[in-house]
Specification:
Layout (H helix, E strand, L loop, with lengths): L1 H34 L2 H8 L3 H7 L3 H20 L8 H14 L1 H17 L5 H11 L5 H19 L6 H15 L1 H11 L1
């Protein structure tokens, strides 16, 4: 009986934590980091501030958890990429994730804000994309090219211009043709 009660409370804590991440993502997305409060996150779910503090001791801890959650999901998606020929498909899948999930949108936004404020590095998924593009290259020019391509990609998917997923996909297709990545994928496919 105690094991079942313990599992139920563990499951309840896990679900509450997930709901808090979703609520925090929406709060960060609408209010920005500076104006977001733990009380605002709690209010979205009808919980107390103390419940939020039980799971995340500070707003910074909540932010960092959301950034990590986002990075893990994006790394998992990039790990499905089998090379340059698969690159466009993976970018489209990440764009879809960004469009559909506030936690992804907020995680990227929060990382960008934190990186500017603290001069932090790149997220792991960005480094994984760079490896797909240029392999294990120590060439500074390739690193600059990859960084530019990734920054442009993030700007495309984060734009508020797209009214629906179809417009986002059209913008992504344009980005791929503009950067030559769609042609590189075609050439790579033809070599196989």
């Amino acid at each position: 009986m105690n094991a079942r009660i313990s599992m139920n409370s563990a499951e309840r804590r896990r679900r509450t934590r997930e709901a808090l991440l979703e609520a925090a993502a929406l709060e960060f997305e609408t209010q920005g980091y500076a104006k977001t409060t733990l009380q605002g996150v709690a209010d979205r779910l009808g919980l107390t501030r103390g419940t939020v503090l039980f799971h995340f001791h500070t707003k910074e801890a909540l932010r960092d958890t959301l950034i990590q959650w986002c990075d893990e999901r994006l790394c998992a998606k990039v790990s499905q990429c089998s090379g340059r020929s698969d690159f466009a498909r993976i970018l489209a899948a990440i764009a879809d994730m960004h469009y559909e999930d506030a936690r992804i949108r907020s995680g990227l936004l929060l990382h960008e804000e934190k990186a500017r404020a603290e001069n932090a590095g790149h997220m792991k998924w960005e480094e994984a994309l760079e490896l797909v593009l240029f392999g294990q290259s120590n060439d500074v020019h390739n690193s600059i090219k990859a960084g530019t391509l990734i920054d442009m990609y993030i700007a495309v998917i984060r734009s508020d211009r797209w009214k629906n997923k179809q417009q986002l996909r059209q913008a992504l297709d344009f980005y791929l043709s503009l950067t030559g990545l769609s042609k590189a994928a075609e050439l790579s496919d033809n070599r196989l």
